[in-house]
Fold Exopolysaccharide biosynthesis polyprenyl glycosylphosphotransferase.
Amino acid sequence: MASLAIGASVNFAYAYIMLGWAQNGGELLAAAWIASATIVVWSVARGHYQQIATRSTAAVTWSGLTACLRAFAVLITVIFVAKLSDDVSRGALICQFLAVTALTMLSRTVFCLRLRRWIAEGRVITGRMLIVGDSARVVSMITEHKFCDKLRADGKKIVRILAWNFVDDRESEKHLIDDVLGACRENSIDTVVVVPTARQSDLTERVTAALSETPATVHLLPFTVLGGPAPGSAQIGGQASIAVANAPLNALGKVMKRVVDVAIASAMLLALLPLMLSVAAAIKLDSRGPVFFRQNRHGYGNRHIRVFKFRSMRVMEDGAAFRQATRNDARITRVGRFIRRTNLDELPQLLNVLIGDMSLVGPRPHPIALNDTFAARIRLFHRRHNIMPGITGWAQVNGFRGETDTDDKMRKRVEHDLWYIDNWSIGLDLRILILTLFSSVAYRNAG
């Protein structure tokens, strides 16, 4: 916003002073918008904002220059393609570039210095971390290599350290893995560092495999080296590491998905308000009970969320009392049967999207009792919670919705959910939304 304000101000000032207001005000404002939006998108895509705490001040400052150069390259390309070069003053563009670049570099330098101060004072946390691994190596890294001190200097908060001694039985191994997963989910861990030894390579493999069911980035510190170069793909706490798992969406992906969610959900709520009021009135006239049904379900990172739906049953079952709806279920009301078959019962979840508990597209959130039933029987079941749950999803538009009375039905749904997580794109989200509205397959097994 600062870049937009200064860019527009410089453009308007130049047009007024030098050109006697010979330019169109809308064109000047559009040029400022294009440059500012490109700076933000490029900076998010390259992780400039995420890296401010870990990069040198000089690197942060010069990253502002590269962002501005690319932004104005895009702006000049747009002007050329749209054949606006005769209507836009070159002097105004040059002045805008110089002013915006100076502001961007100065603001990044000031923010970098201020952020480092806040991190040193413990007022800013850039990540929540869990360290798990062989106790001897963990102690060595903490004492000899100052691993934790370096992480804290980067703004990382080490929430827990789970160190193991030699584990030689399945019961102890299961207990350790449960502790690791529990720590990740209860403390919103975004990064896990696994510190193994050669003698426990099998255990390390099973721990890292289990961590794939969490939305955390997992770093494995090779046991062949400590403090020196390694065949790793990343670095953390001054140590070379191998990133064996990454969060499903990068920073740009999260921003893009959230922007699309808020824009479309807001527009749909406004457009569908008369329809939703009609459905609410029909529910009230058809049977006793509230219009909305709120149910606890698993959301992102296995956290509990309260999902809104139009009430379609005569009962309000939740928790352990939950019993999944079946075809021709006597508990379903007359209006409920219609709104379930047409997906109208899901419309209130647009509120969940705006709140931030859900996305328009993602794995459908299941009632907690249903998840608990299948999680122990289907491998990687909880990995479907590594992305925000959705009102509709890839499994649903492929016909895998409705009752899941067998392991095979649920396994097919999970397979489609995991494929979506591994292949996510904005284009895929839009395709799923269109199929939800117009494909007959999306309505299969509804009711």
Summary: The chain has three domains: 2-120, 127-245, 251-443.
